[in-house]
Design goal:
Elements lengths: L1 E2 L10 E5 L5 E5 L7 H9 L7 E5 L5 H8 L5 E5 L3 H13 L6 E4 L8 H4 L3 E6 L15 H7 L6 H11 E11 L4 H10 L2 E10 L8 E8 L6 E2 L3 E2 L15 H9 L3
Parallel strand pairs: 4-5, 4-7, 5-6, 7-8, 9-11, 9-12
Antiparallel strand pairs: 1-6, 2-3, 8-10, 9-10
Helix pairs in contact: 1-2, 6-7
């Protein structure tokens, strides 16, 4: 279901923050908030100025808004199963003057098709739930639990949904946990999404990666490039109050490009 938002309202359990690209973001005080994973995902997306994109499991809509701000695509379809967040995306679009470039679809990614958007799409992005339902501590907030755990679809469902709505040669961008990279690649390939570019993000040079970014192409040939890793901090001393971000990380945050 596509929803339109004409009246902007801020609820008592919400706050407004200003994040990257001067985007003002309404966020739930007890919900998932803007984090580095979402920013890295938007930075990983290659610009395709006239493309139409869907964000599967859009949350507050921030990943798509960051891409729109950098003209990485022209139009965003935000797909979000939780109605309170679907409403939030619409209000955030309105707050940032993006209502004419965003449609919100309050539905399950497992039920979407090209008909949902009136066409096959050029790009799909996603920060999908990465924890199995039998893993991790149960969140007190149902919204957080659904966002983080595979309650409403696992990585196979998200890759299948992306493949269904992408045109041949369309691109799928995903941010995920490195310890589940094998699942992501298996799910992508089973959906005819061929992984073409992979990047690992590490807190510093002595730490294991905390994030993996993957770009896959629908119907692409087998050939994958592993990009040089991104280290967020130069120093390995996590206890130092003066630890500074690496020049590369600073460049990424300044340009929203990886």
């Amino acid at each position: 279901m596509q929803e339109k938002f004409d009246n902007l309202k801020i609820l008592p359990d919400e706050r407004i923050d200003t994040v990257n690209e001067n985007i003002r973001l309404i966020q739930k005080k007890d919900g998932l908030t803007f984090g580095s994973d979402v920013f890295l995902l938007s930075a990983f997306v290659k610009p395709s100025k006239h493309a139409v994109c869907a964000d599967l499991g859009s949350g507050t809509g921030i990943a798509g808004f960051l891409c729109l701000a950098r003209e990485k695509f022209s139009y965003l379809h935000a797909v979000e199963i939780q109605e309170q967040f679907a409403d939030l995306i619409g209000r955030n679009a309105c707050l940032n003057g993006l209502s004419d470039r965003v449609s919100v679809h309050a539905c399950d990614v497992r039920n979407i098709s090209p008909a949902t958007f009136g066409r096959e799409l050029d790009i799909v992005i996603s920060n999908p739930p990465y924890m199995k339902t039998d893993s991790g501590k149960r969140n007190a907030s149902d919204a957080k639990y659904i966002a983080r755990h595979e309650v409403c679809g696992n990585i196979y469902d998200f890759c299948s949904a992306a493949a269904k709505i992408l045109k041949f040669g369309g691109k799928f961008y995903c941010v995920y946990r490195p310890d589940r990279l094998a699942d992501l690649i298996d799910a992508a390939r089973k959906a005819s999404l061929e992984p073409k570019r992979v990047m690992f993000v590490h807190p510093d040079k002595s730490s294991e990666p905390s994030v993996v970014l993957v770009e896959a192409v629908k119907g692409g040939a087998s050939s994958m490039h592993v990009s040089p890793p991104l280290f967020i901090y130069d120093s390995d001393d996590r206890s130092s109050p003066n630890r500074k971000m690496s020049e590369k990380a600073l460049s990424v945050y300044d340009t929203c490009m990886l």
